[in-house]
Amino acid sequence: xxxxxxxxxxxxxxxxxxxxxxxxxxxxxxxxxxxxxxxxxxxxxxxxxxxxxxxxxxxxxxxxxxxxxxxxxxxxxxxxxxxxxxxxxxxxxxxxxxxxxxxxxxxxxxxxxxxxxxxxxxxxxxxxxxxxxxxxxxxxxxxxxxxxxxxxx
Length: 153
Ligand SMILES: [Zn+2]
Ligand SMILES: [Zn+2]
Description:
By secondary structure, this protein is α+β, with helices and mostly antiparallel strands. It contains 5 helices and 5 strands; from the N terminus they run H-H-H-H-E-E-E-E-E-H.
């Protein structure tokens, strides 16, 4: 995300103040915000900004690999400005997403077709975050977590 604004200027991509505000909001953001979170945060500075602006800007950033779409939250798509490969941990109570930057030593399984080109992998963990664990009554899962063959209940 660091040089996104300079890069886009050099390439002649139109950067409105709203777009710059969205990029600034995302820079170094560890919250894995949804499009709605971004919209609400940036709208405070630009009350006339439309949701479409957030959506289009995210589309541009994702297409250029500056922001990664995260599908770990079954309720809404989340976005990650950290495009270095890493894994995610989601709290099934408050939906907080944390980064996991470990190497699990995972390689492509032998059962894959021989000519299949694997370009990456992503491991998702589900659990209860320390904050929810400390709060009585919050540790129960309020929103069903994503059903998946890789999920351990
Ligand atoms: Zn939590
Ligand atoms: Zn992340």
